[in-house]
Amino acid sequence: MPDPNGFLRYDRRLPARRPVPVRISDWREVYPPAGEELVREQATRCMDCGIPFCHDGCPLGNRIPDWNDLVRTGSWDAAVESLHATNNFPEFTGRLCPAPCEAACVLSIAGGQPVTIKQVEVEIADVAAARGFAPRPVPAPSGRSVAVVGSGPAGLAAAQQLARAGHAVTVYERDDAIGGLLRYGIPDFKLEKRHIDARLAQLAAEGVRFRTGVNVGVDVTAEQLRAEHDAVLLACGALQGRDTPETPGRALRGVHQAMAHLVAANRVVAAAATAGEARPSVAVLPDGTPIDAAGRHVVIIGGGDTAADCLGVAHRQGAAGVHQLDLYPQPPQERDEARDPWPTWPWILRSYPAHEEGGERVFAVAVQEFVNDGTGQVRAVRIAEVTVEKRDGRRVVTVVPGSERELPADLVLLAIGFEGTEQQPLLAQFGVTRNPRGAVDAGDDWQAGTDGVFVAGDMHRGASLIVWAIAEGRAAAAAIHGYLGGPGALPAPVAPAAQPLAAR
């Protein structure tokens, strides 16, 4: 049984990050390995609650108390098995998920210190990776085939589940490499791409086929895919970035969607790694337009994960200065129990490693204009202080009179969220449409309104957490397995209508 006094004997501790001057000089991950002693100490803080609310915080249904206690006792093989029983890619979630399981930990009640679930998870995953991700034995071929369109975490999770059930799976990716946003949307200082490559080798050994550079709906039609496969899973993500076309000066050079900056940066980092170069070249858009922060005054609009990723990239590219703007007031340091009662996800100030590397955060402001330098290039942003309130379910933003000022800006990045999956030819060809949120609806069987065509991940849910993407990929795979007449049942951790834990 767990140590009932562990949380009394040990405080919450995380491994020290690499020093700022060192880590901004390269693109390696911010956190070094924690070390077995620290990990076992932190796992000991888990009480194995009678009702483990961490399970409710995570849609994957991870057996968190189980593998915490296995780590505490040094049973690493069993911990690896327990972790992978519910999560195909814990090395991804342990690095990228903001850990709603920790917000739901009993130890976080009344501002307490939750178990470092995310850190324990990634250390277990890294132990497994160090030993090699051995492919699991695959049963006799079922004679049925599935096309998975999109190679992000939802698509890859579904592909692995289906392949392990004996189905022939082909993953189609329009980019030149597999991984979706994991590959080109997430900077290496959060997720080094060797982790993706190790998993892809495992999937390939389990029979999954990969076809890159194939834009379904353009290079191959939906009709062709339906003719070649017994079922299709659409897992194309939610990459339609939210924009501000009404803001004066939006068309100026130097104003870009944040994802354009991240993808360009990731591509040059990947190219440098392949060539064995110490420093990547200047990041550019596909048309050759520079989108590099080197020597520039950068303004990032948005306060979430994507904005923080752009901040970290700008530091490593050598920005002259960075301002990160947030429409909302600065959140509190601790959970407001009246607003966000435990165990729901709280609205609090979240500081990422990139924030300790430099830059200035500015809260409760809105951009009034992107200022032209006279040649069509942005030179500044004009901002104003604002108040934000909800009226009849709508957000109302009011400018504070006399609060306007300018910030220098040579590069402006819009990180204000996503509007759903992109409008693309494959939608009409498969007979599916986007709903008002820009997502694709699914029935109770995960089908998208067309027989044999399924949908999962951000394409169905809208931009969300990686744990939800993997959970939906696993659940959609279970539905496809049943549709194909496969024996038994695959794990289905969530239903299409499932929602995150919230106060009612």
Automatic annotation (TrEMBL):
Record-linked InterPro entries: DPD_II, FAD/NAD-bd_sf, FAD/NAD-binding_dom, Glut_synth_ssu1, Glutamate_Synthase, Helical_ferredxn
UniProt keyword Transcription regulation, yes or no: no
GO molecular function per UniProt: iron-sulfur cluster binding; oxidoreductase activity, acting on the CH-NH2 group of donors, NAD or NADP as acceptor
Span of domain FAD/NAD(P)-binding: 145-473
One Pfam entry name: Fer4_20
Pathway(s) where this gene product acts: Amino-acid biosynthesis
GO biological process: glutamate biosynthetic process
Magnesium among keywords: no
Descriptive protein name: Glutamate synthase (NADH) small subunit
Organism (species): Micromonospora cremea
